[in-house]
Amino acid sequence: MAAPVYPAWVSRWVSGQWRQKKRPPVFRPTRPLVLANKVANRREQAGEATCITEMSVMMACWKQNDFNDTACAEEIRMFYDCVAKAEKERKDQNEEDTLSPRGNLSSTSSVCGVGPLGYYNGSLAVTEAGAECLNWAEFPDYVQQYPDRGLGDHNHCRNPDGGTTPWCFYRLASGAIGWANCDCNQGAVRLAEDSSVELYFSGLWGTICADHWTDWDASVVCRQLGLSEIGTAGKKSHPGLWPVPLHLQSANCHGDEKALLQCGYRDAVSGACKQGSAMVTCVPPEGVGAPLRLVGGKESFEGRVEVYHDGKWGTICDDQWDDRDAEVVCRQLGLSGNPKALSWAHYGQGSGPILLDEVECSGNELSLDQCKKSEWGQQNCDHIEDAGVSCDPFTEGTVRLAGGHSPSEGRVEVYYNGNWGTVCDDGWTDLSAQVVCRQLGFSGPATLASEGDYAAGQGFILLDDVACAGTELSLLDCPHSNWGQHDCSHTEDVGVRCSPESNTVMDGSLGPPVRLVDGESTKEGRVEVFLNGQWGSVCDDGWTDRDAAVVCRQLGFSGTAKARAMAYFGEGHGPIHLDNVECTGTEHALGQCARPDTGIHSCWHSEDAGVICDYVEEKIQDIRTGPESGVCGMRLLHRRKKRIIGGNKSLRFGIDVRRYLLRVGDYHTGVKDEFERELSVERIVLHRNYWAGSNDNDIALVRMRGREGHCLSFNHHVLPVCLPDRKEKSEINRQACIISGWGDTGKSYSRTLLQGVVPLLPREDCEVRYGQKFTNRMICAGNLSEDKRVDSCQGDSGGPLMCQRSNGRWIILGITSWGYGCGRKDSPGVYTKVSKYVPWIKKVTKLK
What we know:
CATH class of the largest domain: Mainly Beta
Structural class: alpha+beta
Number of strands: 43
CATH topology of the largest domain: Plasminogen Kringle 4
Low-confidence stretches: 1-49, 93-109, 618-642
Mean pLDDT: 76
Strand content: 15-25%
CATH superfamily of the largest domain: Plasminogen Kringle 4
């Protein structure tokens, strides 16, 4: 390869012929200049500011006159005049910045320090004018002249000649080669008076987009400024034009970097920033417990757990570390997903102190501080035992469609062990496609895509020989090969086309798709949004009718919308995608409303939001009994006074009527329902043969206070149930009786009314289990199979066991009474047999 051709002054300099007094008198400002009235072309403006044009003219004159100063006196004078003018502008700017708290560069932000080798050895490759440095390999003579000064096949700035400021060669607009000092303030940060972050980049101060700005990014800024180790992220809106350039679209810091430009940042994209510019507060964030961060992971939701205490970040030893501890860490960090504990420095070894050991959480704590653990600093570990967590937002077996023209079609990809991979088409049919679409929330027909409809995938092929029957709820329920075992190539990647269901909107232009789940119709249910390849719920923080109106409008409903909170339609099971949604009520889709970043929340599924669309206020009609009232037991109980039937165990405060309140039409115990009504108690009647030490004769009657025939109203949500005959001979469905209540679900009492389907069990089964405690005034019921146990539980006492007659009427066959535990395989629930007490009920209520 031919040697490069240099201008004469460069050649003389490289070959050692350059006289020291003839070295180009280049203007070397101590800090970059920012010319407010010149912002169109940074490189050309900076070139003017540093007198590159005048220098080029002077150099050309020297070249033509064999470096004769006298012949080039005018050119030299013009250059020095330019230098003097630029120096004056620099001093004026310095004075202005000194007076303004916004102007100070971070004392720790300079990147041009001389290293232990005696020269700058960093990766800076930009001149003060914003020009990109040339590769030193283009100047072999100079590399040979300074063999041990860090020169080589790279374009990083260096100071091989022993100067205090590194420099490099660069190419002028004319094509000639020049040299200039490097911009040692590249990457410097400062805080404006309103705490906005400003970054010095390519010769100009600018801002950072706040769309993906996190506390990790803010902490790096605070560390770079030397203010603190912990920062809290904020956002500043810009209704009009941005006042300064936008440099970065996102910082993507892990939180342990020493400077912002050490993070995996992305350059700004024009018009893509929606949430304003980044702000920082350099104090610990408000919240419960010592601050935590995740370090060393490939994603922001995983990493080595580090805790901040007494001014230092430190690690946690993995002794006793398990998924319950990981769940608390993820909750404290506001990360949804599936918590997983990792040990043995899975994300690399830390370097600071080991601050905690023997952490033992129950999994319900709000912060690590609330868990059982060692004293701060007490441990017997090494960093090889550093604990880590993954708060993976994806569940194993999650599916997504990729490469399609809409969210309802594409190449099938499945998530396993932290990786997405494709599915081979061996044995694949429309039945398997139906399962994938059902798992994604589509209820319409599904079809197998033709070969080549979607681009081939990359990476892992995770499943092969999938053979679904079409009824499964998840692809993992279908027979398939072992994970990763296949004999396929990506040309055999399978694709599907799904048909959206009526209460799901999958139009990607409207933002995240939404659907309603677990409602009584397609017009109501828990709100779920489709993000990151899976459906997730919305937290009810700030959830109002305005938010509900937007959801209903996105789903195509135009009527009145009502918001429901506190898991009104039951708790979800996947991630919680959104929180603190703030709609004005005029948006066309939930994705257009203001909200924090996806997955950031401080919620439980007990706070899942719901909506009712096309809401109509129900008309409540009084039920007035008279001689024509005939066959329904509850109506018959209303002949004289309104009566409710229940168990004695539900009357835990005795028979003092002042200690009770009757509530009808209640669905959610924490929410006032429109059809809910509270009534006073006038009288309580216990069965005369009941005593507290026995489970027998566990039945009571309650009379409500009010005017005869007018104290209780029935509607769609408040209905009577019929009394059974004393000797119930009608045909009833003994395999599908209903129990309901707000009892214990295994974690806590339910906030919403639950129901379950249970079969009546033969008396012999109950007598074998309970012996003489099980009398002929009792019945037992329950679905106690290994895979699906259904049973009444603590808190359900007094609730009904209802079965349906062949004529369609429901009768109250039993009252929840007692049992051994809840849902035990060999211990079905025991119920008071109501038919045995029909004569007593009629006598007390004076019913015929």
